[in-house]
From TrEMBL:
Superkingdom of this protein's organism: Eukaryota
Protein name: F-box domain-containing protein
Annotated Gene3D superfamilies: Ribonuclease Inhibitor
Length: 402
């Protein structure tokens, strides 16, 4: 397929236009924001533009079979030929960003082609995004990524296997985002270099171990089926963990030899699944959509949060009448300076905000002496909120409206 494409669809640029006064480097950067086919079509604009697309600093390979094409298989086959030729023409040209997004892959030849593209591009690119490549019986190769240049990887809507998450051959990778992915066969996510990790709305088949010892920032938002087990992270500075409505029996595996469940959660030496790994964090938010299995088990061996200075909790940590979860957290946060309770609210905005003040005559021994600010945010002061306020009053904390 000729990479020049259909010249009738190419944009028209006047010879004396302002864009012609820009240096090649700027034009190559601009072409990186254009879908690959459109970027290649600029070769017909003028002699100067003939080869600029080959050195574009970004590459966007975006294809959907829902483009009004009658013969999806033929259209997909032509697009595969186009991308193969495109990558061959680019050769080893430096590449800052790349996005590959496919919807509705529908040919048995898609998988080897796609895996070839990913391996080829990964060797060169710094920021890589893969999305919308998930369909039944389609997986990426179960092989580690290899790249000296990759610094940021974003995965969205994919089914991924175990070896893919071995990032030991990506020494520059510092930022990893995984969203709405199926990790049924992923036993381990492993990297010495990753500093920022975000896992959102993902499906875990095992209790996947996350071994990222140099992590600085963690976001674990609403996992499904089983929570991952995260190993110790001594450099952690901030963490946001929101646990969905996990099945209370999801950790109970029938196989007694299954380390994924029993080696972590059972016996006298059982360890925390989530709280232990967060114990080095300085700023943390713990959100639970219900009184979940994982946090309930973790609190039986609650670690000391020796560095924690700011903490946000929602109403699931404030269950009357014992308030055992909240009490446990307060006892194990010796340097806590700010506590925020976000109660019975689905969004970041609240109609009611209150500030807590300690009774000057007496301070509860259960609370950090560094705790200066206590906030309560809610939609309305109802009976449930009043119960929480009464409990906090027993700790010699009174509240005023903000």
């Amino acid at each position: 397929m000729p990479l020049g494409g259909n010249s009738s669809k190419a944009p028209v640029v006047s010879g004396g236009g302002c864009i012609d006064s820009l240096p090649d480097g700027v034009l190559e950067h601009m072409l990186g924001f254009v879908e690959a086919r459109e970027a290649v079509r600029t070769c017909v604009l003028a002699r100067r533009w003939r080869y600029l697309w080959m050195s574009a600093t970004g590459l966007r390979i975006v294809y959907t079979t829902y483009e009004g094409k009658v013969d999806y298989l033929t259209a997909m086959r032509k697009y595969r030929q186009f991308v193969d030729c495109l990558l061959d023409c680019r050769g080893q040209a430096p590449l800052e960003t790349c996005e590959i997004s496919f919807e509705g892959l529908c040919d048995d030849d898609d998988r080897p082609c796609l895996n070839h593209w990913i391996r080829h591009i990964t060797c060169q690119v710094q920021i890589f995004r893969l999305s919308n490549i998930c369909r039944e019986d389609f997986e990426l190769d179960d092989l580690p990524l290899v790249s000296r240049h990759l610094t940021r990887l974003e995965l969205d809507g994919m089914e991924l296997s175990n070896s893919f998450f071995d990032f030991s051959s990506c020494p520059s990778l510092e930022h990893l985002e995984i969203a709405t992915c199926f990790l049924w066969e992923a036993n381990m996510i492993m990297s010495e270099s990753i500093k920022r990790l975000s896992i959102t709305n993902c499906f875990f088949g095992f209790r996947t171990h996350v071994n990222v010892p140099n992590l600085v920032s963690l976001r674990l938002d609403s996992h499904l089926y089983r929570a991952p087990v995260i190993e110790r992270m001594p450099a952690l500075q901030e963490a946001y963990v929101r646990v969905g409505r996990e099945n209370p029996n999801s950790a109970d595996c029938d196989d007694e030899d299954c380390y994924s469940c029993h080696g972590v959660l059972c016996g006298d030496n059982k360890k925390c699944v989530l709280l232990e790994c967060l114990s080095e964090s300085e700023n943390m938010a713990l959100i639970s959509e219900s009184k979940t299995f994982i946090f309930g088990r973790d609190l039986n061996k609650c670690p000391i949060f020796s560095k924690l200075k700011t903490l946000l909790l929602n109403e699931s940590w404030c269950v009357a009448p014992e308030f055992s979860a909240l009490t446990c957290i307060l006892k194990n946060t010796p340097v806590l300076g700010k506590l925020t309770l976000q109660l019975f609210s689905k969004g970041p905005k609240h109609k009611v905000e209150m500030i807590g003040r300690f009774n000057s005559m007496e301070r509860s021994a259960e609370i950090s002496e560094h705790l200066k600010t206590i906030e309560i945010k809610c939609e309305v002061v109802d009976e449930e909120v009043n119960e929480i306020l009464k409990f906090l009053c027993t700790l010699n904390i009174c509240f005023i409206f903000k």
